[in-house]
Amino acid sequence: MLKLVQQALGQELKFRLPQFSADRNAPHAFRAAEFAEMAASVGKFWQAHDMLYENQNALRDEDLLRYGEALGIDEKMIERAFDGSFDQKIRADFSGGIQIGVNGTPTLFINGIRYDGPHDAQSLVTILREVDREVAARG
Predict the structure, then answer these.
(1) What pLDDT was estimated at residue 56?
(2) Do residues 73 and 28 share a domain?
């Protein structure tokens, strides 16, 4: 859904995707978040994000190692994902999310305001364009 919104709005769309990975129902989510942060550090966040999303039921360490190799990430960098280097950032993202009302994923905010409307691409494009027009009208 976000990819469709991204395609529709192109460079107009700016968004932040913090980690929110402490779901007790998803035991491998934290490791996947570590992997995603490592991939981001080498400029491959979106490729890793897509791979993780498409393989949500295969997030064990050996799966993550295989994904890193498939993305062409050096083995030492892949191992760095799990050495604790990214844990503070992931925990800070999670805590920050809790403080502003995130209680699951996806939770969307538009210009800092939680958006609880429809999550289909067309609805999001429409609301984002409306907000952009309002902001532009205010100057």
Answers:
(1) 87
(2) yes
